[in-house]
Amino acid sequence: MRTARTAVALIVVAALAGCGAKVGEAKDESEASGHYPVTVSNCGVRTTYDKAPQRVVTNDVGIAEIMFALGLEKHMAGYVAPDYRTSRTADVPWKDGYDKVKWLSKKQINKELVLDAKADLVFAGWNYGFGEGTDFTPASLKKLGIGSYVLTESCRSGAGNERGVMPPLEALYTDLTTLGKIFDVEDRAAELVAAFKKKVADAQAGIPRDGKRPRVFLYDDGRDKPFTSGAFAGPHDIITKAGGDHVMADLKDTWTTVSWETVVERRPDVIVINNYGDVNGERKKDFLLSYPPLKDVPAIKNKRIFVLDYVDLVESPRNPDAIAALARYLKGVRAS
């Protein structure tokens, strides 16, 4: 990205050229290709890159896997994430990426960590690492000479802290396409987007267009009040494109809290559980099945509970597979 150092370098090059020095040999392959500089828009902010970042630090597993899917391991200094690979221990997608890139921490990303990693770019999101409460924001990193890329799912909208500016899958495709431009891997990005769109279309092929759609609620966590997803988080597109009716589609936010009364009123036929953290999917399922206020909800009465992993449900290249898996489950629900 353009920095004070870039400006100084340009002055030095101009001075050398004025003295008759040959400076063409100093260009790297990406500059010689004519791809750079490249200007992109990310969450409404336009940034110009003079070359591809070389020491990217990512926060959270879905974000790391976006980089892995694009084949950008050599551009990464490391990733920060709890062990959210969860139930898929035998066939973790992009396992080579996890093996090649340094796991910097399971804990909260912070300035000291990215400075120690000599990061030139941090790829995170609002509430996915970025937050004013920890003073870890694109603005605070800019003061340290470190660039930022914000996960599109987490783009803030409006005057408050609500997040989401486009449908979830569109956010994934937008990030893949934009990062493809930044890192000069546009062909790879286009191939991924095309493959993901085909996978989603194949999953939808068997869904009746005029039949009843099972009503689906996403349960993330929470006992007093459930934490769930609105229209701009991954589960919305996962549910709707799998043939379900997302009961919280009217919430114009990503992840948010609702009341149990609202869940009961909307009578979901299926509950999808987000499997992560100390309280895993099985324990969350046991809680839901034994929670008295839910006893008359169809999903509980019929024990129709489907578990997906955290990384399936946040913006990540696993979203299309999650759609296919849920579509198969909902097909069985409609047939029963």
UniProtKB/TrEMBL annotation:
Domain named Fe/B12 periplasmic-binding: residues: 55-336
Pfam families on file: Peripla_BP_2 (PF01497)
Signal peptide limits: 1-17
Keywords (A to Z) from UniProt: Signal
Keyword Signal among UniProt keywords: yes
Keyword Hydrolase: no
Family to which the UniProt record says this protein belongs: Belongs to the bacterial solute-binding protein 8 family.
Protein name listed in UniProt: Iron transporter
Organism field: Streptomyces caatingaensis
